[in-house]
From TrEMBL:
Region span, Disordered: 346-369
Protein name: Prenyltransferase alpha-alpha toroid domain-containing protein
Taxonomic placement: Bacteria, Bacillati, Actinomycetota, Actinomycetes, Kitasatosporales
Biased composition (Basic and acidic residues): 359-369
Signal peptide interval: 1-24
Domain Prenyltransferase alpha-alpha toroid, chain residue ranges per copy: 50-161
Amino acid sequence: MNVRRSAAVLAAVAVIGAAIPAAAAPSPSQALPSALYGDKDPEFDGVWRQSLALLAQDTVGEKPAAKSVEWLVRQQCEDGGFAAYRPDPTAACDAKTMLDTNATAAAVQALAALGGQDAVADKALGRLKSVQNEDGGWGYSPGGASDTNSTSIVIGALAAAGEKPDQVEKDGKSPYDALLKLALPCDGDGDGAFAFQPDRKGELAANADATAAGVLGALGKGMVTEPGAKSDATCAEPGTPKQAAVNGAAYLTSALAKDDNHLMSAMAGAEPQPDYGNTADAVVALAAQGNTAQAEKSVRWLEKNSASWAAQSGPAAYAQLIFAAHATGTNPRDFGGADLVKQLNATGPAPQTAGKAQSSDEKPGEKDDSGSFFGVWWYVGVCLVAGIGIGFLFTGRKKQQQL
């Protein structure tokens, strides 16, 4: 991220067409909330990037600024869900407020890690459970087919809050049942990968972005994970979540090795280019599964090559790199000579452990003045120009519905 919505961006580009205007940054005159991380238009990723920034700070032992945590809490709607961004949190959510499972689950992971926000996290989890699909999974919005990315980020939220994902069922189906339906066999195209969703014919196609998410989901883990026990298991019939994770990791290992230890962007209409965000996600997934050799090779590649991408993409990109460093035992304060923690902190309010404790001084109703049209084109343009390709989330933006 960064805007981190690669699956949705691919769909949006296919619908919008190839004529993409040049990327632009918001005008300096546009007011953003003082507690928000990043200086880009937050319309589509405000809650997402804030959640990742706070989660990354907690991961490295920093205590986030109080006002930044409060900003995230105030983004929650009365029913417990989160939208991508609410410019005026004092205004009640209504039928026009498009909530989404991805923002909600990311917020839960951050707030659960920080502690002290159990009521907020529990309310969000209740909302997520209420919109679980009959197959046990989640789509970006209710009514859409379950997808690997959304299902996995919700599994991570459940686990972070101390719940057992396999016991969260709808009509007798758990999230793991949904993931197994999206796992490809080892023979033929795909070689054990996860698909994002079935296509219109009901067929599955391998997707590295979804596979990174699916491995973590099948393992019952969130975005922050410790290195797993070394595993040399090979691809086999994906009859269990554990085996599906093994298979997905084998696919990622092969895909990373094919292109000099990184993934390539699959964005329609774009020139082939490295996909830094998805590479970082793949590192986390491989480390969690125990495929440590390839994870270490790829994190070394990120150390050498990701600086410009992260600087352009912003707080969520720094967070992704911090998660990759943490998962592989790499020092995030000396990541190829860069201090990722310092760089992340510089995109928003200083954490309490990096300066004096802060209280909330955000003014109700502070908002970005950019319109929806600007936001869409800036977002898609940056992805194409910068090769952001970012991350395993954000599914079905073109079919947004109320959560």
